[in-house]
Write a structure and sequence with these properties.
The protein has 193 residues and is an alpha/beta fold. The chain has two domains: 105 residues, no CATH class; 80 residues, no CATH class. It is built from six helices and six strands.
């Protein structure tokens, strides 16, 4: 006798590939990918109203291919899928395709985390590019000083940093809320902006 009922579990034959909990459907869903074991990716659909507690998981599908996930989600009754008003997702094209095919009446909302990450990455790229420009300018000035037998002294800003140092040391203040800046970070920000 088996107490858990594992061997009689009706989802057992496909549980390593997908699980579906249609009873957890709601009007506000979220779809994302996650790595669970040994780097294996899974697509997870959750009911946002459950706030991560019991009843949150609507579906778990091994992999992120739109076709595979769609095939599983289309097993959910049409009437339940058509009640979905909104799906929060990242900016990956496959996630949008899944939502378009499975939740046709739902509006798509891009996850703030992913938008914020893109903006932060772009800001970092700009800071790094400016830093390289400052390094190149400083190298030219050093070469010119050497050519003219003059000792080179970097321009020092009002806070004691050189341009190069300012661009290195401002990295963290760019991603902190202004009310959490230290006095030195505030001074750097005033020079930067």
């Amino acid at each position: 006798m088996n107490l858990s009922g594992f061997y009689e579990w009706e989802d057992r034959p496909h549980a390593d590939k997908w699980l579906l909990f249609e009873e957890n459907m709601g009007p506000y869903l979220s779809i994302d990918e996650t790595s669970l074991s040994d780097g294996e990716l899974y697509t997870i659909v959750t009911n946002k109203e459950a706030k991560g507690r019991k009843g949150a998981i609507v579906a778990m599908v091994r992999g992120t291919k739109a076709e595979d996930v769609t095939e599983v989600l289309l097993r959910i009754k049409d009437r339940l899928r058509h009640k979905v008003k909104e799906v929060t997702l990242d900016m990956a094209a496959n996630m949008g395709m899944i939502v378009d095919r499975c939740f046709t009446k739902a509006s798509q909302v891009t996850d703030r985390f992913h938008v914020q990450k893109l903006a932060c990455d772009a800001l970092q790229d700009m800071r790094i590019a400016l830093r390289w420009q400052a390094i190149e300018q400083e190298n030219k000035e050093m070469a010119l000083a050497k050519e003219n037998n003059i000792s080179y002294v970097s321009q020092v800003l009002e806070n004691g940093d050189t341009h190069r140092q300012l661009l290195v040391r401002s990295r963290y203040l760019l991603f902190k809320n202004e009310d959490k800046w230290t006095p030195r970070q505030r001074q750097r920000a005033e020079i930067l902006f």
